[in-house]
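## retry 2 of 3
previous attempt timed out at serialization; input unchanged, resubmitting
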Amino acid sequence: MPKVILHKGGTTYEDEVDPNTNLVVRAGIRKFPYPNLAYKCGMGKCATCSCRILGGAEHLEPPNWKEKRQLGDKLGEGYRLVCQLWINEDIELAQDA
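## retry succeeded, writing output
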């Protein structure tokens, strides 16, 4: 099971999730990383769920058109839209407070 480490506001949250998990979907049904992950639409339209990937980026699919449109240059800084990611391997990410 993939291990997820989320850094936010000076605190680290850690848990395991099932393979092929979307963290925004889990937060929406009040499972980890709820209530610590900020999100709104869950469809790649608002960028509220954007996080910087600190580890495990090599296991993610390349950014899609929604991420490219919303994040622009921030993609080069390691940011991704969590609502667009399906987690199958360990990942470490940070969300700006």
